[in-house]
Amino acid sequence: MSEKVESTGMELLKEIANVSGKGGLFRILKPSRAGVIVESLDEKREKTLIGPTARVSVLKDVSIFTDGEQESAPLEDVFTKIREVHGEQVELSIKTASDKDLIEFLNKILPDFDRSKVYVSDIKKIITWYNLLSKHLPELFVVTESANEPEAAAEEAGAESEDEGNKTAKKEKSKA
How many CB atoms lie within 10 A of CB 75? Predict the structure, then answer.
């Protein structure tokens, strides 16, 4: 029996990075001797060389501190929950929203976030990143259903060998 496995394009987060000191997000294109070549995630799609001393954070490795059993929640889980609650765009304006509004926003998404370690500036980044990714990388949020490949292949092979066995038994009976 094959299991349906739902997956999203969140594995693309391993190609997206935040660069300290630069606004926005960047797609990592390739490493070079002098650093890493990135492309901005905006309309301009500018390619830039980021030096080896710059702090580059790959979004796949970013998580939000929590008070629960687990010490943190992966950013991909947070983005998925935002998508369920807010759809394609978070309408909350980070420039005009109060600190209380921003904390309430994250509280709806991740109720057990650690209020002593997650700052309002972090919540603003999450909203900004989500809106950027939703606009420029919508395939990140596409949910696809796929059969669990190894199990499905094994089951099909098993069914075929049963059919072969039945055919052989029928031939032997007809000869007798």
Answer: 21
As given in the structure block, the two tokens for residue 140 are 């990140």
Determine how many CB atoms are found less than 10 A away from the CB of residue 63. 15
**pLDDT, tens digit, 9 for 90 and up, residues 45-63:** 999 999 999 999 999 999 9
Whole-structure pTM value: 0.73
Q: Which two tokens stand for residue 97?
A: 């929203």
User: In angstroms, rounded to a whole number, what is the distance separating the alpha carbons of residues 21 and 48?
Assistant: 14
Strands (E), the chain: 4-7, 16-19, 26-32, 35-40, 47-50, 56-58, 63-65, 72-74, 144-147
Contacts of 107 (CB under 8 A, 6+ apart): 113
19 by DSSP, 3-state: which?
strand
